[in-house]
Amino acid sequence: MRAFLFDQYGYYPPHEDDSEFELEGWTFKLEAIQDQKEEELQSLNDFLQGLMQLFPTMGAQIITNRKGTFISEDDYGKVILVATKKQKMRIQDIIKIHQQYVNSPSEIPYTTTYLSSLWEEKINSIEQKILPSIRVDDFAYQKIMVAAIYALGLAENALQYLTEIAIDYGKEISPLTLSHRRLESLDSHTVFDPLNLILDSPIRDIAEAWKYKVITTTELLQILPTYQLSIKEVSLLFARMLFPTRFFDLLEKHYGERVDVRKQILAYYREMNQDLVELKKVEQLLVKNYGIRPISWLLNA
Q1: Three-class DSSP labels, 134-146
Q2: Contact 179, 209 (CB under 8 A)
Q3: Which of 84, 147, 151, 224 has a CA-to-CA distance to 37 between 20 and 30 Å?
């Protein structure tokens, strides 16, 4: 990897296998891409420059290689090198981004039906491909399966909650703004990584930040009034909070990248009971403060 980075970009990371490294206050990370073309990456890079105007002391860009192109190819496929100025950010910075790009137009209708189809596809992949691929003789097998059953139960409840939202309030999801596929932390790379940016409801970021424990339940409730959310939007927020993104991401990483994630999965297993207590607490507060539909099984959880 060190030789590849030097040959392609002129950077020489400290360790041979580093695909991510730091240099002079910047974080550099090689990231795999799928079908993106040079023109799309140029547009993304241009967009980053506009986004940086909101944060004058920050920086983020896709680095061109020695050939002057964004895309390079390694032994595993096509990659790009993303650089971000290393800095800790705040949840208020995420809110600032949401406010700046609110009511961004979408090329396709964004509805609960569309979101349900994405979740159903992920659930089917977990059940039909990923879980059967886990070795029965793995020392963590039993706990992984218990965690999986718990997570799949949450996912089914999230799907049912989406169905009820559509019945009660309609299928359209709006407004849309600049959001993130995942908000696992508030480091600058996560926030500005162009491959992590997505057009979605701002509640996606809020839900993901809570699920990844970037924000607490108390902080969540302090943030919500900023958005002046309707009952429908708060209901969508809770549906997203139910959906077990963190656990499913670990399984997909294990299956797709052959990464050993047993340590993280066992941590998820150990935290399940406390996480359920916190989920119940959130549900009760959202029912009380916003009037969302309660979930009966949580009352006895």
Answers
A1: CCCCCCCHHHHHH
A2: no
A3: 84
Rounding to the nearest 10 degrees, give the CA dihedral for residues 196, 200, 206, 211.
Answer: -60
Q: Which residues of 12-38 are buried (b: 16+ CB within 10 A; e: fewer)?
A: ebeeeebbebeeeebbbbbbebeebee
Query: C-alpha angle with apex 81: 76 to 86, nearest 5 degrees?
Result: 135
Question: Which amino acid appears at position 103 of this protein?
Answer: N
Cβ-Cβ contacts under 8 Å for 269 (sequence gap 6 or more): 143, 144, 146, 147
Say which residue, 289 or 17, is predicted with more confidence. 289
- Cβ partners under 8 Å of residue 151, min gap 6: 244, 247, 248
Q: Rounded to an integer, what distance in angstroms lies between the CA atom of residue 275 and that of residue 301?
A: 11
How far is 272 from 18, CA to CA, in rounded Å?
Answer: 33
Query: How far apart are the C-alpha atoms of 162 and 39, rounded to whole Å?
Result: 36
User: What DSSP line would sit under 166-207, residue for residue?
Assistant: HHHH-SB----EEEES--S--BHHHHH-GGGEEEE-HHHHHH
pLDDT digits (tens, 9 = 90+) for 254-299: 898 888 888 999 999 999 999 999 999 999 999 999 999 999 888 7
pTM of the model: 0.93
Largest CA distance in the chain: 61
Segments in the chain forming alpha helices (H): 2-9, 38-51, 91-100, 112-125, 131-133, 141-169, 188-192, 202-211, 217-223, 231-242, 245-257, 262-290, 296-299
Gap between the Cα atoms of 257 and 251, Å rounded: 10
